[in-house]
């Protein structure tokens, strides 16, 4: 271990201090000029391509969305290769009931 954080105790103190500084900033909005600067930097580095690729990778194709209306969550998860919790979240976002949900709708 080298440098001024060469001991375990010093490294823990530094990390604790960093954690406190980050906690103070979390949830606060940035000034407009800093937001613009970050946006321009992201554009210059072409970071958007990574976001779009990730979004496309996770997108639900129409055939998988159709399964939500016809099968229980566990079966949809198995067929689509997604986690069962992801299937439940998607179903909840769409407001779709499970195929095995036998509760009455309020009319």
Helical content stands at 55-70%
Strand content: under 5%
**Number of DSSP strands?**
0
Q: Which consecutive residue ranges, at least 5 long each, have pLDDT under 50?
A: none
Give the H and E element order: HHHHHH
Termini Cα gap: 69 Å
Q: Quote the average pLDDT.
A: 83
Shape, principal axes of CA atoms = elongated
Secondary-structure content class? mainly alpha
Radius of gyration: 23 Å
Figure out the total of helices.
6
Biggest sheet character: none
What distinguishing features does this structure have?
107 residues; mainly alpha; 6 helices; 0% strand; elongated
In short:
The protein is mostly helical. It is built from six helices and no strands.
Descriptive overview:
The chain is mostly helical. Among the domains are: 30-59; 60-100. The protein is built from six helices and no strands. The protein has helices at residues 8-25, 32-44, 48-58, 62-67, 73-80, 84-94. Helix 5 crosses helix 6 (84-94). It is elongated, with a radius of gyration of 23 Å. The mean pLDDT is 83.
Write the layout of secondary structure elements.
Blueprint (H helix, E strand, L loop, with lengths): L7 H18 L6 H13 L3 H11 L3 H6 L5 H8 L3 H11 L13
Helix pairs in contact: 5-6
């Amino acid at each position: 271990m080298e440098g001024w954080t060469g001991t375990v105790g010093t490294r823990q103190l530094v990390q604790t201090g960093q954690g406190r500084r980050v906690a103070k900033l979390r949830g606060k909005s940035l000034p407009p000029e800093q937001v613009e600067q970050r946006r321009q930097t992201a554009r210059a580095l072409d970071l958007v391509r990574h976001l779009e690729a990730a979004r496309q990778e996770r997108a639900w194709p129409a055939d998988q969305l159709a399964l939500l209306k016809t099968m229980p969550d566990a079966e949809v998860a198995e067929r689509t290769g997604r986690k069962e919790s992801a299937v439940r979240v998607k179903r909840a976002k769409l407001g779709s009931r499970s195929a095995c949900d036998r509760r009455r709708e309020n009319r």
